[in-house]
Amino acid sequence: MVVKVNFRTQVKVAASVDNVKVELPVNSTFNDLMIEIKNESIHKLNSILFDSESKVSRSLLFTINQSEQIRSEDNIELNDGDIITIFSPISGG
Amino acid sequence: MILTDKEREVYSWQIDVPDFGEEGQIKLKESSVLISRCGGLGGIVAYELAAAGIGNLVLAHNGNIQNSDLNRQLLMTDQSLGTSRVESAKKRLLDLNPRLNIEIINENITPLNATSIVSKVDLIVDAAPLFEERYSMNLQSVLQNKPMIDCAMYELEAQITTFIPGETPCLSCLYPENPPHWKRRFPVFGAVSGVVGCLGAMEAIKVLAGFGEVLAGKLLLMDYRNNTFDIVAIHKNPTCPVCGKQ
Ligand SMILES: [Zn+2]
Questions:
Q1: Using N-to-C axis directions, what is the helix angle for B42-52 and B85-96, rounded to 10°?
Q2: Contact (CB<8Å) A91/B152
Q3: pLDDT by residue (tens digit) across B79-126?
Q4: Which of A56, A84, A91 should we substitute to test contact with B (largest number of B Cβ atoms within 10 Å)?
Q5: What residues in A contact B237, CB-CB < 8 Å?
Q6: Which CATH architecture has domain A2-87?
Q7: Of A2, B61, B127, B195, which has the maximum CB count within 10 A?
Q8: Distance A17 CA to ligand 1 centre (A)
Q9: Per-residue pLDDT reduced to its tens digit, A49-87
Q10: B174, B181, B233 ranked by CB distance to A67: nearest
Q11: ipTM of the assembly?
Q12: How far is CA A91 from CA B97, B111, B215, in A?
């Protein structure tokens, strides 16, 4: 199955692309997706997406299908065609 | 509290909004709002809230006006370079609407001053650049049971949500840890901060006057680079250290 990953805010700047399509085995979960992103070594992203212990950073916002927040600790199952969007926090000034 | 004849005339176009009316206008006149800071984002919130007739504004922002403020901080002027930001903001707001009480605080929000500053108001508008300031206001929003409108921008993107203590997630639910990659200075256009500032002002007006539907438990995400606008449902974190036991 294929999952589209949108990059937004500082994550988009780090990735230098707006989105990628990631091929995953059927029944893959959110964490499988993150491991695949890590293994595909879009390495510019590793420091912003993962902490020093290689866990998914807690200071990121994830949404599914542009309608709902999801948390990495819930590790939801993904479906073909899902869209995951990753934001780093932003503020004002 | 009643409106004067002058106020009825000044606010007549918004008093005509059917579910707002004179009753809503009186609620705004009786309200107090903290805006921190009053730069590109908060300055626009303050300008719109002053125009709308919020009776009491508390503006917290440290420092003097610099050249690099002027692309977005519309309460600051070239002529006032080097002078206090909050003094300039107060003057511009009173030029527009002299019927307001405006308290200025020449400090940014910190864990030390947040308790007393938040205690002065009914609602907080978070427009601060540093997450330390944002977390300080969020904690007091929860402890003092006061709504907080959270506005943010980056490059051509913007976000806004309204935190209602006891009802919605809080800032720490959304971002449990201070983001290590966030910097005080970031790329942005003034027109982007202006749009989200106007949305923040309208959220404040709706919360205070009690009409319409606010972005409670919903995060509005905008990207002007490709003109996308999404509203996503956001959720409480049951283990949130700030609001988790509420
Ligand atoms: Zn919380």
A1: 30
A2: yes
A3: 999 999 999 999 999 999 999 999 999 999 999 999 999 999 999 999
A4: A91
A5: 71
A6: Roll (3.10)
A7: B127
A8: 32
A9: 998 888 999 989 999 999 999 999 999 999 999 999 999
A10: B233
A11: 0.94
A12: 28, 18, 17
Domains of chain B and CATH, by start: 31-233 (3.40.50.720)
Give the number of other Cβ atoms within 10 Å of residue B23's Cβ. Answer: 12
The string of pLDDT tens digits covering residues B19-77 is: 999 999 999 999 999 999 999 999 999 999 999 999 999 999 999 999 999 999 999 99
Which of B62, B175, B193, B239 to mutate against chain A (most A CBs within 10 Å)?
Answer: B175
Alpha helix positions (H), chain A: 9-15, 30-39, 46-49
Cβ–Cβ below 8 Å for A59 and B177: yes
- Find residue B83's DSSP bridge partners: none
Q: Is B220 helix (H, G, I), strand (E, B) or coil?
A: strand
Locate the domains of chain A by residue range: 2-87
